[in-house]
Amino acid sequence: MLQLSSMDKAYDHKKVEEKLYNNWEQKGYFKPEINPDGEPYSIVLPPPNVTGTLHNGHALMLVIQDILIRYHRMKGFKTVWIPGTDHAAIATQSKVEGILYKEEEKTRHDLGREEFLKRVEDFAQKSHDIIVHQIKKMGASVDWDREAYTLDQARNLAVKTAFKQMYSDGIIYRGETIVNWDPKLQTTVSDDEIEWREESSSFYYLQYGPFVIGTARPETKFGDKYVVMHPRDKRYKDYKQGQKIDIEWINGKITATVIKDEAVDMEFGTGVMTITPWHDKTDYDIAKRHNLEMEQIIDFKGLLLPIAGEFVGLHIKKARGQIVEKLKEKGLLVKVDEKYNHRVATNYRGNGMIEPQIKKQWMVDVNKEFVLKHSELEGIKSGDKTTLKKLMKNAVSSSQITIAPANFVKTYYHWIDNLRDWCISRQIWYGHRIPVWYKGQETYVGIEAPSGDEWKQDPDTLDTWFSSGLWTFSALGWPQNTEDLKIFHPTDVLETGYDILFFWVARMILMSTYLMGQIPFKKVLLHGMVRDADKQKMSKSKGNVIDPLDWSDKYGTDALRIALIFSTAAGNDIPLGEDKVRGMKHFANKLWNIGRFIQMYKTEDKKQYKTLEELLADNGGEESLYASNQEMIKQLKELKNSVSKNIEKFRLHDAAQSLYQFIWHEFADNHLEEAKKIFISAGGPGKATDFPQYQLISLVFIDLLKLLHPFMPFVTEAIYQQMPNHGESIMIEKYPA
């Protein structure tokens, strides 16, 4: 093991952290082969996006998972932690497009697809290298030889294989449907990528024949020729389904048709509404139920189409005021509510306003019945007919997968119950190209392109969540390399933020149960958001965003790690201020000073013991100890039990707090002071007593360092190497039982 210099007066994290990490990696301690005969234990790292650098949420994720990995490695498990990064197609392309326009005033179309993708790949590689450095800086003991990337060749094969199988089973189809269209990025986005934002705007009441309708978007109303009311609304009982009414509208007379549908909220506005099926999902569903015509009003750039008459070609934002003025002139504007608060849909990746559009897209049918070819699942056998929704629900309801905190289970079920077909095609260039080729009316789906120049590949790429949904098994080598897959899949724990329970966790369950007939992981552990010291969400606009590595550089990685964990109950948001990290730097210094004290009183006993158990067995057992030492051993046993139990139950904050309290306020303040008296009475430093009292204190402290190592790996290793009873490395020592 790396030999450090004798213990300086103060602990300097900058001297040891990088050296220790590099040595651990070189020695192969991060590999499962370090415990070749152990029971497998595996985690795949939720892959950070290659759009920039890690934030405090990533830091918390890394610390929690590293604690679990280091603990199980020391417990003798054959442990693997697979690292990787995510290409994050929309986010990465959007970032590069922004840089391109800012620096060169060019768009991706100016460069062409091939040249633009080179730019994106260069950006992604630079970001990847920064992220890898940050992961190492946090002390994460991942197996770098198994690193994966969601857009590398192995993962591309996995994506194509999955797409082809789902297409063959009729789960993937291409059809026209209403999608979330982002005019800014010129692509569709999934329902889960929508961020709803509160907005205050005007609400307009318009005269629509004999009815008054309400809308926040008068610019969409040109094609409204259906007026919808609830079938049980007594105010409109005289109007019949399919009744025709001639009315004066924005650009002249039209014939409106009465539709009765229970989707109408009788309590909202006047209880009657017109519908724009092309640009609203609720309206689209109503139109589908009643087989109504649908007409596009707004093009894919956000401009009004010819149906808008004199307003054709205007952007909807610019046109709204002019349209309202015309309605007023025609006497169709009844009143305006200036303080209407409502939610608007935006793309959380690029912040563009969403404009629903009907478009031909590739979709995943979540309700389609198919025969499950292979199953290791509870309650669903190989050859059974099922659906993706049923697979996703069964994985949790059968208790094969447990979700912690348990209150998120209800949220998970609610999401599945309301899940629509998943739109997986994106109109961007960066990402996995859809493995479909066309020639005239022919369509070919396959791993490799068909022969012949006349075949043209679909220009769209796949939703990022399609490839990341394969992550637990594609990162382990599926479909080609199955050796790791057989040993380590299903993985043991999926630890991630609660905010991507649906984005990612649910989709991994979907993909794994369908393609593998296995659950992807046994337990889901959800952590909360890291907030500032005042519990405010961190954002650039507030100026409270913290780079975790700034505090790591200033106070040491161990201080940041233990500060992140100390108040982190599963699923709860975590307030993190600099004072908390600074306080944990004092704890690291306290550990160092304890180590220096023990080193100072080192004695040359006849026999050097490697474990506390060996020392006690060879010297009369616990009964031969002073009363204070007997109490210390009793407390140590209780501490070992509680720490292990809390880690096993994912109560990492309880484990960290109990270690902190015992080491500082029991071991240092009480037991070390008692030992000091014995050492002094024996004649001072280096003087032995009949009982190897020095080794007792040294071995108790080593056990404490081992207990603490998963939480604070660097300072515990640095001190351990200075103890007379140390072995090769603390991280491959046996965890105190």
Brief description of this entry?
The chain is an alpha/beta fold and about 725 residues long.
Tell me what the structure shows.
The chain has 737 residues and is of the alpha/beta class. It is built from 22 helices and 27 strands. The strands form ten sheets. Strands 6-5-14-18 form a four-stranded antiparallel beta sheet. Helix 2 (56-74) links the parallel strand 1 (40-44) and strand 2. The protein is elongated and about 105 Å long. Mean pLDDT is 91; it is low at 1-5.
End-to-end distance: 24 Å
For the secondary structure, the number of strands is 27
Mean pLDDT metric: 91
Q: Count of DSSP helices?
A: 22
Helix content: 25-40%
Portion in beta strands: 15-25%
Q: Which geometry do the CA atoms define?
A: elongated
Topology:
Elements: H1 13-27, E1 40-44, H2 56-74, E2 78-82, E3 84-85, H3 89-104, H4 108-111, H5 113-137, E4 148-149, H6 153-168, E5 172-182, E6 187-189, E7 194-208, E8 211-215, E9 226-229, E10 244-249, E11 252-260, E12 272-274, H7 281-290, H8 316-329, E13 333-347, E14 355-364, E15 370-371, E16 385-386, H9 388-397, E17 402-404, H10 408-417, E18 422-423, E19 425-426, E20 436-439, E21 442-445, E22 456-457, E23 461-462, H11 464-468, H12 471-474, H13 483-488, E24 491-497, H14 501-515, E25 521-527, E26 530-531, H15 548-555, H16 557-566, E27 574-575, H17 578-600, H18 612-618, H19 627-648, H20 652-681, H21 693-708, H22 713-720
Helix pairs in contact: 1-22, 9-10, 9-14, 15-16, 16-17, 17-20, 17-22, 19-20, 20-21, 21-22
